[in-house]
Amino acid sequence: MSIIVTPTQALLSKLLIRKWTEMAAAAISCRNRFIVALSGGKSPIPFYRALSKLTKGSLWTKTHVFLVDERYVSLDHPESNFRMLKKNLIDPLNIPTRNIHPIPTGAADIRKVAWQYERDIKSFFRLHNNEPPVFDLILLGLGQDGHIASLFPGTRALEEKRKWVATVTEDHVKPPRITLTLPVLTRARTIIIYAPGKQKADILKQALEDQNKKSLPVHHIKAGRAQLYFWVDQGAANLL
User: Fold this and answer.
1) Residues 217 and 199: beta-carbon distance below 8 Å
2) For labeling, which of 6, 12, 48, 197 is most exposed (least CB within 10 Å)?
C-alpha cells in the first residue's frame, strides 16, 4: 500500500494523470488494451476534467471504461454516475462508443440490471468460468462512512462472495444502487482510492489507522492482490 500526498488537489490531478498514462502505456503494450472501472460522485470531477485534456488518440482508442457503481436512475438523470462521466470525460475526448460500458439501468427490475451488467463484463473479458475479471485500474472514492463503490456499511452487497455485481436496496441507501463487489474489486491490478479535500481527513485517518479491524468497507479492499494507492491532498492528510 502506498499513500501519495500533494499540497493541492490540482497537483494531485496532474500527478495522477502521469500515473494513468504510465499504466495505460504498459497495459496497451502488454495486452493491447487498458481496462478501467471508474467511480462517480463529486470528488473526482476535477480529475476527470483534467484528464479529458489528455488527447492522445491511440491511448483512448484502446481504453475501455466501465463503471464501478451506479444509481438506479436513467443514464441521463442528474444523479447518474454515467452522465457525470460522459459530461466531464467521455464526450470531451470523443472516446469510441464501443469502448464505453455503462451499467444498463433501463430495466424495470434492478436485479435484472445487475445480472445484465455482470453478463456484459463476462462477455467482454471472454470469461467462461466463475473467476472474476481483472481490471487494469479501478478508481474508487471514499465516503464519509467509509464506503467504497456502493458497498455501504451494513449492506448485503458488502458480504457478497460469489456475484460480481450486486444490488444495494437497503432503506438507508437512496436511490438504490448497482455495484461491483469485493471479489471483482480486490482482483484489480491497481486500485487507486482518490480522496482529496479536508472533509475527508477524519475518514482517511480511520481508513489508514484501523485497517486491520475491517470495521469499515474500505478496510476490506486491502484483502486482495491489487497494488493499492491512496491519493490525497494536504487537506485530507491533515490528521495523519
Assistant:
1) no
2) 197
